Amino acid sequence: MGCVLAHGFFVIWNEKNLGRLPRPFFNELYFLNTEELPLNKEQFGWKSIFEESFLPYKEQGLEVGRVTLEHKRMYRILTENGELLGEVTGKLRYEAGCRSDYPAVGDWVVISPRWNEEKASIHAILPRFSKFSRKEAGLVTEEQIVATNVDTVFLVNALNRDLNVRRIERYLIMAWESGSNPVIILSKADLCEDIEAKIQEVVSVAFGIPVHVISVVDGRGMNELSSYVIDGKTVALLGSSGAGKSTLTNYLVGEDKQLVQEIREGDDRGRHTTTNRELIVLPTGGILIDTPGMRELQLWEADVSLGQSFQDIEELALHCQFRDCSHQKEPNCAVREAIRDCLLDQKRFDNFIKLQKELAYLDRKADKKAQLAEKEKWKKIAGDRTRVNRR
Question: What is the CATH code for 42-127?
Answer without folding.
Answer: 2.40.50.140
